[in-house]
# Entry
Amino acid sequence: IIQPKIISLNQMITDMEKMLQRLIGEHIELQTILSSEPGNLNADPSQLEQVIMNLCINARDAMPDGGTLLIYTENVQLDETDESGIYDAAPGAYIKLSISDTGTGMDEKLRSQVFEPFFTTKEKGKGTGLGLSTVYGIIKQSGGTIWVESEIGKGTTFNMLFPRSSESIENDFDTHTASVDMRGSETILVVEDEDALRTLTVEMLEENGYTVLKAEDGEAALSISITYNNRIDLLLTDVVMPKMNGRKLAEEILKIHPEIFILYMSGYTEDAIVHHGVLDGSTEFISKPFKPTALLHKIRKIFTQTV
# Structure
């Protein structure tokens, strides 16, 4: 389900820049070149943020020894004379978004498979294979198109086109720093096996007033829940993890802390998680990668819900 709004792509990227730099790490230089004549587009802001974060995480993984990540926007006008076929788009006004890395690159065979569901080049346990197929689906739902350019040893560029809108930006769109009403003082146990995402999540929660415990897998989290003497208010856990999955971890921790709230997160979509029986439809869930404000809103909603 999408909830499109009129948004500024340039403003969204500017608002996300600090978070993206923390997510990709100090060994990668983040550069942004944004159109001097920005246009607006009609899209679901949270899903577009997910697209950008997914592509930046993939770029980071392609540059383990460091490199440069470039985010570029420009206005594009396609007319009837364009016969390149590369855009796969009707004539009209568009906003082009490109995300480029200087990483390992891909050969032609890999390029032809990157948007297939469950296809991944990452080692077992390091990727769901759903990231780029989700990106593809979101862009198509937004009326856009995407294609990839890559060469072995020369990096990769994902190019996207979105129809440009002449409408004004809606006032209720806000991607700025979390407001005071999203702060809290509760204790949260964060369980995430990806180091960068765990660190980013912990820092963000601590900056907003929470006491945070952290673990890299289910077994470590269970050990913390046993030895920690005070109340743990919320378990924020990945669903698919080595050693112990999120649902099993939640079952065990509920025996020790019966009043704890549970919030699952996963790179898989919620529908896929429920369909395959990992979770049931009544559980609280947030898709990865998520924007910090989305997580903060979700957590406050859980803590303030009427029982």
